[in-house]
Amino acid sequence: MPWLWQLLPLLLLLPVLLLQLGEVDGASKRVKLCLQPMVSGRCFGYVESYAYNPLERRCEAFIYGGCGGNENRFDSKAACEYSCRDV
């Protein structure tokens, strides 16, 4: 049973390590979506949206058509800036 006490610190650290691993994965996913091109989509709606422009290194407004497109599309400039802060 004393060996169980030696394992306790490792068992307590495991959730912390797994959370940090998830943050790294989430950050890399955000970077990938922010590097996608700004795409209006194939429909003809008029939805004011924001996308990250990696060449200008900032979020810019564009008109989304309402369908198609990609994940580099945000409802507000603040949401775009927050999601693409690591780029």
UniProtKB/TrEMBL annotation:
Pfam families per record: Kunitz_BPTI (PF00014)
UniProt keyword annotation of Nuclease present: no
Entry GO terms, CC: extracellular space
Signal peptide: 1-26
Record SUPFAM superfamilies: BPTI-like
Domain BPTI/Kunitz inhibitor: 34-84
Name used for this protein in its record: PI-actitoxin-Afv2a
Organism for this UniProt entry: Drosophila hydei
